[in-house]
Amino acid sequence: MSRFSLRPALLALALCLSPALTLAKSAEAVEAREAPPAHGEVPLAAEQIDKAGVALTRVEPGVIAEQLSAPGVVIADQDRIARVPARVIGSVAELRKRLGETVAKDEVVAMLDSREVADAKSEWQAALVNYDLQKTLFERAEKLWAKRISAEQVYLQAKTTAATAQLRLNLARQKLRSLGVSDGEIDALRADDASANLGLYPVRAPIAGRVIERKVDVGASVGGNNDPSELYAIADLSRVWIDLAIPASELNAIREGQKVFLRAPNEATLSGQIIFIGPVLNPETRAARVLAAVDNPGLALRPGGFVTAAIAVRETPVALRAPKAALQTIEGKTSLFVRNDKGFVARAVGLGRSDAQFVEITEGLTAGETIASENSFILKAELGKAEAAHDD
């Protein structure tokens, strides 16, 4: 048979096979498109990851701080507590701050009405008037003496009187300063201002903070022998102290400057450092007093509250570490969600030492891999949905 006689037969065979091949390719495409993700895989695009709030972290070498746990009580930083004193004898004319309100340094928080202050101000005004007069008389006597119109004795007498007036004026200013009146307020006093209430005395806050105590009421007498001597107590709670009790058997591991970690009531992790180790043991508990200074953003810690602090007693380098928040339990195994080109895949890992924030990864990961470090519970939920759909 010639090749020309075979061509029609081959053409007919190709036409028969073409629909079958087309159907086979379509089935393969549908199967590839509808194939479920691999076991433990959560497919997510980059924009979906950002929308879900899943934070990413590279797994790298780091340090694990071995810790010692100790109970403690939150107390105010004693270096940031100030009493607002009544420095003069008088009565409370006005209270401008209530409990819990914030104050700025040198802000006027109260006004007192004080006869003591009124007497001191009037004394300064009288000394100022006398000094101005004696200064004028001295300048005139000096000119007359220079021209030999008056006697030297008159000139010397005027000079002595002016110097005495200057001394009395300086003493009157020092008296007002000792009562807490500023130079600006002293200079603003005018001798001819008869309408001014000289007894009004502004009380200013010595530090910035919040009012934690109010000691008096409006109209109360203050500053006397049997009267209250303070108006307010102000505390800056942006940093607090943690009063820890450390057993004698563990004191050898404690040093000033060591880091301290604790969890606030709002679940925030706060850190600070040890600033004091008591040299004396409590005879009843056989424990030493240890103080740690901790920054208190948002005033999450309140004085009087109980906390458990973790003291970093030793730092150990590790080959790999990951945030504790990234760990999830999947099928009874501790796992991490590792980023890949499709999204994430759950991978079981081995754990070693840990501290308040990080845990050592002993197996299952390599340096440089990227994991979900925050909100990984969202990935666990998506994985559960995918596995359930796969089983159906």
Continuous helix count: 6
Structural class: alpha+beta
| Alpha-carbon Rg, integer | 41 Å
Percent helix: 25-40%
State the total count of DSSP E strands: 22
Output the helix-strand order.
HEHEEEEEEHHHEEEEEEEEEEEEEEEH
User: In which order are the strands of the major sheet placed?
Assistant: 3-12-15-14-13-16
Beta-strand fraction estimate: 35-45%
Low-confidence stretches: 1-6, 9-34
Can you tell me the overall shape?
elongated
What summary fits the major beta sheet? 6 strands, antiparallel, barrel
Average pLDDT: 84
Q: CA-to-CA gap between the ends?
A: 58 Å
List keywords for this structure.
disordered N terminus, 4-stranded antiparallel beta sheet, 6 helices, single chain, 392 residues, alpha+beta, elongated, 31% helix, 6-stranded antiparallel β-barrel
